[in-house]
Amino acid sequence: MQEIHQRLEQRVDRVREHTSPAVNRRIDLLAQASADLTIRQGRNAIVHRLAELDHEWDIDRALMANFALIGGSAYLVGLQRYADRPFLRPRRKGLLYLVGVQMAFLMVHAAVGWCPPVTVLRRLGYRTKSEIETERAYLQHALENGAPTAAAA
Predict the structure, then answer these.
(1) Average pLDDT of each block of 10 consecutive residues along the chain (153 residues)?
(2) Could you tell me the sign of the dihedral formed by the alpha carbons of 42, 43, 49, 50, in that order?
(3) How far is the C-alpha of 130 from the C-alpha of 65, rounded, in Å?
(4) Alpha-carbon separation of residue 73 from 91, 116, 117 (angstroms)
(5) Which one of 14, 71, 101, 106 has the lowest number of neighbouring Cβ atoms within 10 Å?
(6) What is the pLDDT of residue 153?
(7) What was the pLDDT predicted at 148?
(8) pLDDT recorded at residue 95
(9) Distance (Å, rounded) from C-alpha 132 to C-alpha 121?
(10) What is the largest CA-CA distance in the chain?
(11) 97-to-1, 28, 117, 118, 133 alpha-carbon distances in Å
């Protein structure tokens, strides 16, 4: 059975291509260690881990939540600051520019698969959908090929 890192190196993934090889390798090694431990724990552990993978947030989902939370907050505060203009002074638009920057980041991410928050989220351990699906396939293969029961492990 081919290791997770080898499987991922054969796939085209724009986020992985723009992530440091050391970060990719760390994420792959953690996934491999987790999968191997799960397989050693037996069939029930594999089924439980597959259910966990169904609920794991991938990098794109985490990025969208990040942009929605930070962008929405910046927009609301920016609008409030813009509306509360001091007498005879220019309107304050600083936080509204942050929303524009985030929209530019989203466009760059859509076009090339990278933006500055992705670098941070990858280092925090968020994985791509491809990485999650590769671990799922690895575990599914072990399950279909006779993973030991918990008592036998």
Answers:
(1) 78 90 95 96 96 96 93 87 78 80 91 92 96 96 78 48
(2) positive
(3) 19
(4) 19, 19, 17
(5) 101
(6) 46
(7) 66
(8) 80
(9) 15
(10) 79
(11) 50, 37, 17, 20, 37
Tokens of 28: 């792959």
Residues 6+ apart with CB under 8 A from 137: 7
How much is the pLDDT for 149? 61
127: DSSP letter: B
Provide φ and ψ at 10, rounded to 5°: -85, -15
Token representation of residue 144: 């279909």
Q: Cβ atoms within 10 A of the Cβ of 38, count?
A: 23
Beta bridge partners of 58: 127
The per-residue pLDDT for 97 is 85
